[in-house]
Every structure is written in C-alpha cells, then in structure tokens.
Amino acid sequence: MAEPKPGIERVKDNVYRFSYEHYHSAFMVTEEGIVVTDPINEEAAGWLKTELAERFDVPIRYMVYSHNHIDHVMGGDVLDSDEVTVVAHEYAAQDLEWTRAPTAMPELTFPDELTLRLGESRVQLRYHGPNNGRGSVSMRFLPANVMYVVDWVVLGRMMYRDLPGYDIHGVIASTRDLLSGEPFDRFVGGHGEMGTREDVEDYLAYTKALYNAVLDGMLAGRDLKTLKQEIRLSEYSHLSMYEEWLPMNVEGVHRTLIDQSYIDRRLNTGN
C-alpha cells in the first residue's frame, strides 16, 4: 500500500499538524513568524519549507526538536537559516553533538522549562524526565492550548513494537506528569491520531495495564514465552497493531524489567 502524501491540517486557531508518511510534527503561525517542530527528514522538510512559503508570508523563527531520535530531527539544515533559532532540551542537544548527527545543531537549550514567544502566541517547552530517547519534551502551543508530544504518547495505536528507546517507568511517570498540569484542548502526537486529554488518559491506562501484567507474571515465575502467549489485555484490542505488536510490547517491558530493575536476579536469589 502506498504511503499517504504529505499534508497540512489546522488543529486549532494558528496551530497546524504537518504529516509525512506515518510521522507528524506541529507548527504555529504568527504575524511575527513561524515556530516549526521536528523536520522529520530532508524530503519532508523540503516539502514543508515550500508549503510554508506559499501559504504564509512570514519567516520561520524557531525550529524545536522534540528529542534526539534521528527519524525526527533529520532535515533540520533544510529549514535552518540565519533567521532561525534551533531549540532542544540540553540532553537532546548533547546526544546530537556526541553522535555527530547530520542535521542542524541546537543553538538554544534548556534543562527544565522554556517559553518561546512570538507576539501574543507562545510555546511552553517542558522536560518531564526520561521516557523515550534523550531530552524528549512536551510542547504546549498557547493560546490555542494544543499539546504536542512525540513517541512517548501515541494515541489510537499500540506502543511501538518491542519498545526500542523506551523507559517504561519514565513513560508512565511522564504521562502522569503531563496529565497533572493544566488541561489541554487538543493533543497532537509524532505518530498516531490526534485526540483529547481523555485519549491521553486512555493511553496511560494501557501502559499501566501492560506493565502490571508483565510484572505480575514475572513475579509469579512465568517465562517470557508464556507471558507473550497469555497476556491479552483485550479491552485494548481496538488499538491499531494490537495483534501484531502486543507480544512485542510484552517483550519490551520484560526486557526493561530485567535490564533496569534486575527482576530476574531477584527471582533467582529469592530476595
């Protein structure tokens, strides 16, 4: 099946979603300029640059990376210019530099929170701790009150395969923290569907149910093969890729509990 064509759709007020294949980024248009987020790759960034120039008679002022993963930050050099400030969390910026990522390097970094202002509009960037990748942040576009998060919250779909790059404890903690803040009107993710705060609550419920099912099974002495066969979580069967990725999701949590929490050593020692 052919991949969908690139597209732009209005989310709310002056906030838009840019889609390229199964990736999404967000941008905000003001009289003073545009804030763009993840460029995705060179082809996507080139298409977006052309569309922004044709649709809006204002320049890009900020380009914000959601986190360090290369499948979201490539193409930054296409959108960068002397008028653009490239922004990222300090951990994401460090990783891009350490790994010599072939994209535009961040010029403005921050440890916890940062607000970017263009006229009456602003973007609140916030780090919630580890979750997926390095330096992943939430972006709240105001006054539209649209929330944008990449990879660690995905609506309408299972978590990605066997959770590469995920910190499952951090995903749960970060999503709780996101929901504990001021309510947002609309949610845009780097993958999956757009939705509401209630949809993010449903996503959190799935991650917690998955985590607890795997942990309970491991503590009861079940091996990975058995867990992948027995854990069904049928109340979430409506999610895209449920049949294909549920066993992989189980495997990802199982691996995390061994690598990060040494659950296997606890079982082996009886402690």
Automatic annotation (TrEMBL):
SMART domains: Lactamase_B. Residues 23-191 form the Metallo-beta-lactamase domain. The keyword rRNA processing does not apply. One of its GO terms (molecular function) is hydrolase activity. Keywords: Hydrolase. Coiled coil: none annotated. This is MBL fold metallo-hydrolase. It comes from Halovibrio salipaludis.
